[in-house]
Amino acid sequence: MWGRLWPLLLSFLAATAVPGPSLRRPSRELDTLNLKRQWEPGLGGKAQNYSTLLLEEASARLLVGARGALYSLSANDIGDGAHKEIHWEASPEMRSKCHQKGKNNQTECFNHVRFLQRLNSTHLYACGTHAFQPLCAAIDAEAFTLPTSFEEGKEKCPYDPARGFTGLIIDGGLYTATRYEFRSTPDIRRSRHPHSLRTEETPMHWLNDAEFVFSVLVRESKASAVGDDDKVYYFFTERATEEGSGSFPQSRSSHRVARVARVCKGDLGGKKILQKKWTSFLKARLICHIPLYETLRGVCSLDADTSSRTHFYAVFTLSTQWSTLEASAICRYDLAEMQAVFAGPYMEYQDGSRRWGRYEGGVPEPRPGSCITDSLRNQGYNSSQDLPSLVLDFVKLHPLMARPVVPTRGRPLLLKRNVRYTHLTGTPVTTPAGPTYDLLFLGTADGWIHKAVVLGSGMHIIEETQVFREAQSVENLVISLLQHSLYVGASSGVIQLPLSSCLRYRSCYDCILARDPYCGWDTGTQACVTATTAANRTALIQDIERGNQGCENSRDTGPPPPLKTRSVLRGDDVLLPCDQPSNLARALWLFNGSLGLSDGQGGYRVGVDGLLVTDAQPEHSGNYGCYAEENGLRTLLASYSLSVRPATPAPAPQAPATAGAQLAPDVRLLYVLAIAALGGLCLILASSLLYVACLREGRRGRRRKYSLGRASRAGGSAVQLQTVSGQCPGEEDEGDDEEGAEGLEGSCLQIIPGEGAPAPPPPPPPPPPAELTNGLVALPSRLRRMNGNSYVLLRQSNNGVPAGPCSFAEELSRILEKRKHTQLVEQLDESSV
Ligand SMILES: *[C@@H]1O[C@H](CO)[C@@H](O)[C@H](O)[C@H]1NC(C)=O
Ligand SMILES: *[C@@H]1O[C@H](CO)[C@@H](O)[C@H](O)[C@H]1NC(C)=O
Ligand SMILES: *[C@@H]1O[C@H](CO)[C@@H](O)[C@H](O)[C@H]1NC(C)=O
Ligand SMILES: *[C@@H]1O[C@H](CO)[C@@H](O)[C@H](O)[C@H]1NC(C)=O
Ligand SMILES: *[C@@H]1O[C@H](CO)[C@@H](O)[C@H](O)[C@H]1NC(C)=O
Ligand SMILES: *[C@@H]1O[C@H](CO)[C@@H](O)[C@H](O)[C@H]1NC(C)=O
User: Fold this and answer.
1) How far is the CA of 106 from the centre of ligand 2 (A)?
2) To 10 degrees, the CA torsion angle through 660, 665, 671, 674?
3) Which terminus of the chain is more exposed, N or C, with fewer CB under 10 A?
4) What percentage of the chain carries pLDDT values higher than 90?
């Protein structure tokens, strides 16, 4: 239902035309490839599942495996129209057979291309599910046409299009991992190779209900002093058989854990024992933040060519026990840690106690599960086939290591609630100053891309971009450094994004606050430029680690925001609006230039949209300054002069009334008309907003702040419609502490007068320059407002979280109720400056 309402909400917000800080909008720089429909005649469905991507940098082609088709796109501009295509669909007979087997003919009984890799210098190799009868084909890359004959695919490709699968072609051999046939157990296989291999199933399964996520070849032979072999690492989630007791007694059999396994590339299997089976298979538990986050969703490897620097990033979501909540964790792992675990103690199934425990006995030589190295060759073990039976028997029974692989720094880099990451990729970026930072791109289950930089202190999310209008899972991500592009594959299409767009940061502070390793402030041209291509890299200002230093001399301070005057009656409530420029910024209010105001004290409430003064008293009179504080930088956003007047209509306050009475009758009529128009407008806006609020009710988890009414800042209208809401520290509510953005649930409208006369509905969004004329030049621009995001490290509960901005909902309902009748008129009087 939400999917249908979302456009409605969008169009409503577009109509009211005021983008709030967290109303994240699609980037305008997208090149969308919309290949759908044309190639799925008779279906009319949008589902094309563009989920298999292969980038060929040398020829600048992006190859896409989709449902029923393969495409070859120009990597430079995937939407340039010069693409080639191959139809590769399952025949109607195949599909009806598939349907008869009980499979879904709307989603499953198609040819989903799951595998697409370079085979040799002339050919590609692709496999498709082919309506649950997998087929593979060697495709001439130049001609880009299907061959006349196909290869059987049941040993190489999953039957089920949704089943976890990973595959590589290494030196012509096919290394695939998935569950292959209808009911067979999961397996890591090597095929198209003189020595086909698979995992062992008797007397114990080496893999249990495994769901594969990722695999990678690590060139450990390169520069190895001991003549080590290259290894293939596999990442997956599987049923934990070794969990004895502890946290999951009730769900012991369904408890799933993340694993990493590895095999040696040169493995030839055993001669009598472990014939045609891996002799080098070892697996270990992968720990990120247990017992909460144990479902592996995505893994990427960095520097896999240089094993001394190889490391991995993995995304986890909550384990099935908590599947109603949405949250993700990201951990980093070093290859060295994995190597140490695989060189450590083994686990063993103890028949007596029917449990897994650490193996304490003697370990045979050569060490079981190790690759053939120089020292083994010197001992006469030229290949795995020469290994003694004792060693292979041990391998058969001891696939699991005792020690788990723990993340770098022992903890997650990022925990993020209300987000379900589905995929990630990354690349190291070397900055002009020397240090290299890992830049990650994370795809979410609802079609967003989060770009993040890994810092010494954790992870910083640089921006969030909605790349698909329709919520859909990001299925694949590929980076091209040559094209400076990120390719995103999902159900409805492929999208190409620039790796960075520094030009949109308009000031020095904006540029360094973003902390994008690709971006630096060029003091010569006074622009935020791509650091890796800048003409004079020494003249660039960057501060990736701290994000606040270097701009001291280039700060171009705009004019200070104009002082606004507010005059209220004693006992009234008044809101002094002030929007924060970035989700990362913190609001700071100073009274009479020095006294910092804190929430809940002295009748003040500090909200995300402004300062609420409740039950105003004469001592509240004075000057109020609203500052944005981000990363130690403080900028004045708004200043107000508030005067509180006695409420009792004593003789003196007759004046305004007299003034009113002295107005000419037609002026008064105009005035009344204006007020009526204003009232009507407010009512319409209020009901639309409340309607939208109701639409949002059913949807927990996504919390955003909609701030309607920044019009006065742009110098236009007098009426400000504010939704002010927030979260109470005690509220049972995930995520707000991370997002700093609030939902509309329970929020309310406040109508407050602005400067000048009543005016028509808020105009369309002010062009950026208008926004920048208001003293905001020095700090984050609108784009960062939309894209910047906050995060929380290692915070599982709200315990100990400092009291954040609190909800004004109740206060404001009360105020609205009051003002609906009498206060509105009075307020208009009061505020005319
Ligand atoms: C293909 O796309 C459809 C529609 O978005 C989706 O329902 C289905 O799960 C996708 N299939 C796979 C295997 O991703
Ligand atoms: C799927 O199967 C249903 C029931 O047999 C049939 O009515 C429908 O036409 C089939 N759809 C397609 C696309 O084959
Ligand atoms: C590449 O592989 C294909 C399919 O096996 C084969 O026909 C072709 O001759 C190979 N090309 C080269 C250059 O080895
Ligand atoms: C291993 O290779 C060496 C040299 O290639 C050879 O002399 C030796 O006999 C081989 N050993 C076995 C067990 O095959
Ligand atoms: C680069 O910038 C530095 C610092 O501003 C300056 O000293 C140097 O001359 C510049 N080099 C070039 C080639 O412009
Ligand atoms: C704040 O300043 C106003 C006017 O400048 C003054 O009337 C008021 O007493 C001051 N309040 C305090 C608490 O200093």
Assistant:
1) 7
2) 170
3) N
4) 44
For 468-489, what is each residue's pLDDT tens digit?
Answer: 878 899 999 999 999 999 999 9
Q: 281 and 345 share a domain?
A: yes
DSSP letter at 79? T
Q: What does the DSSP assignment read for 467-504?
A: --SS---EEEEEEETTTTEEEEEETTEEEEEES--GGG
First to last CA, the chain: 47
Same domain, 783 and 813: yes
Please, are residues 736 and 742 in contact by the beta-carbon 8 Å criterion?
A: yes
Q: What is the DSSP string of 177-245?
A: EEE-SSSPPEEEEEESSSS-BB---SSS-SSSS-EEEEEEEE-TTTT-TT-PPPEEEEEEEEE-SS--S
Using the structure block, give the residue that is written with the tokens 């299409």: 493
Q: Mean pLDDT throughout 560-584?
A: 82
Which tokens hold the place of 400?
A: 């699991």
**Residue 553 in contact with ligand 5 by CB distance below 6 A:** no
786 in the same domain as 637: no
Domain shared by 7 and 152, yes or no: no
pTM across the whole model: 0.72
Per the CB < 8 A criterion, the answer to whether 745 and 732 are in contact is no
Which ligand 1 atom is at minimum distance from the Cα of 45? 4
Tokens of 452: 């993040």
Closest by Cα among 546, 540, 543 to 512: 543
Query: 320 vs 216, which has greater pLDDT?
Result: 216
Question: Residue with structure tokens 């004792």?
Answer: 390
CATH number at 75 reads: 2.130.10.10
**CA 224, 230, 233: angle at the middle one, nearest 5?**
125
Q: State the total domains in the chain.
A: 4
Domain with 81, as residue range(s), is 36-157
Looking at the structure, tell me whether residues 232 and 300 fall in a common domain. yes
Q: Which tens digit of pLDDT belongs to each residue from 605-643?
A: 887 778 888 888 999 999 999 988 877 777 788 899 999
Q: List, chain by chain if needed, residues with CB within 6 Å of any ligand 1 atom.
A: 47, 49, 51, 107, 112, 161-162, 472, 491
Query: How far is it between the farthest Cα atoms of the chain?
Result: 112
Q: Contact at 8 Å (CB) between 429 and 436?
A: yes
Say if ligand 6 is within 6 A of residue 592 CB.
yes
Which one of 529, 537, 538 would you pick to mutate in the ligand 5 pocket, going by the greatest count of ligand atoms within 8 A of its CB? 538
The token pair at 516 is 């994008």
Residue that terminates a domain, selected from 418, 438, 464:
418
Please give the distance, rounded to the nearest whole angstrom, from the Cα atom of residue 66 to the centre of ligand 2.
21
Q: Are residues 76 and 212 in the same domain?
A: no
Do the domain assignments include residue 389?
Answer: yes
Looking at residue 673, what is its pLDDT? 60
pLDDT digits (tens, 9 = 90+) for 188-219: 999 999 999 999 988 888 999 999 999 999 99
Same domain, 191 and 227: yes
Angle at 22 between CA 589 and CA 417, to 5 degrees: 100
Per-residue pLDDT tens for 118-153?
999 999 999 999 999 999 999 999 999 999 999 999
- Residue 591: what pLDDT? 92
Does some domain include residue 692?
no
In the DSSP assignment, the letter for residue 405 is B
Residue that is written with structure tokens 């976890």 in the block: 164
pLDDT tens across 739-760, in order? Answer: 322 222 222 222 222 222 222 3
User: What crossing angle do the helices spanning 665-697 and 2-16 adopt, rounded to 10°?
Assistant: 150
168 exposure class (CB count in 10 Å sphere: 0-12, 13-18, 19+): middle
67: nearest Cα among 40, 42, 91: 40
Domain-embedded: residue 94: yes
CA 536 – ligand 5 centroid, Å: 6
Nearest Cα residue to 156 out of 142, 141, 167: 167
